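queue> holo job accepted (zinc ion)
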Amino acid sequence: MLEVTALPANYGDCLWIEYGDSHAPHVILIDCGLSVSKNLRQKLEALVARGGQLELVVVTHIDRDHIAGMIGLLEKDFFGVPVRDLWFNGLRHLPGEAFSEKEGERLTELILGKGLPWNQDFGGGPISVDSVGAPVDIPGGASIHLLSPDDGLLKRLRKKWIDVCDAAGLYADPLAEHIVESEREGFGGGNAMDVDALADAPFIEDVAEANGSSIAFVFQYGTHRILFGADAYPSRLLASLSAVGEQPPYKFALVKLPHHGSKANVSIPFIKALNSPRYLFSSNGKIYGHPSPEAVARTVRHGKTPELIFNYETSLTSPWNDALLIAQHQYSTVYGAEGTVTVSLP
Ligand SMILES: [Zn+2]
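queue> job finished
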């Protein structure tokens, strides 16, 4: 079995992956939203009750909507669940001079204080496409092919990280995300939506350092491949995918779109390079107005009869459940309940 569940994470990400034997599946956790949800706590309690472990915990990057819940989770020792390895690029992993005085940043402090395994799959070093070649084997017959970040993107983050820590102490927050989203005003909704115009709106790529530093990858289990885009830049993802040696469009069973489906991270060339029946948009739309109408329109317009999977039903996602639009553009929609949606891959 292979199942991906988007758990309630407000405008952030919290993704729970199960694979292997359905009675005792292997588990991977990617990010933890703004706080530890009741649903996640219950899943972890069930996991510890059956003597399981987290094969991998990935903290994709330092923005609050991915890391804040993870800090809470480490403080609670994952509710007793052992962790095989935790992937996270801390300041020590960013190219440049060694530690800054701000290495006491909260997550780093917790990882070290609790003696957790840290980037063990990379010999304790940085997670970067420039230092990792082959796919990484994960227990249970899965593997992960890294797509993002690269050394240049980590280096950019290093400067930003120090600036932010110096100014505010502790970890960075969405201050780094200085792309101003204005979708709410631009979203007429309903039948008035012009999908072609939205899709063709000018694309300006994300420049936020933290997003660029995102750990994004292809997860493979059996014949299935899933693209987990974190909040990465599409140009970085495309460059990594083209280096794999396959011809586009790249086939995936599921794509978790980068940056919650932001118009600055979902470009037409990116969608055109993918061949997937399912696209996951993870956000409740708060603060940043994700997913952007432009990004959904690009997926609808250039995806191949895509299923749009939204973990929240909001004023930004519900207009896509429109019979006329669906008939016109040949796609389908799935909505989660209160932020939870599970995708079971056949
Ligand atoms: Zn995010």
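queue> The radius of gyration is 19 Å.
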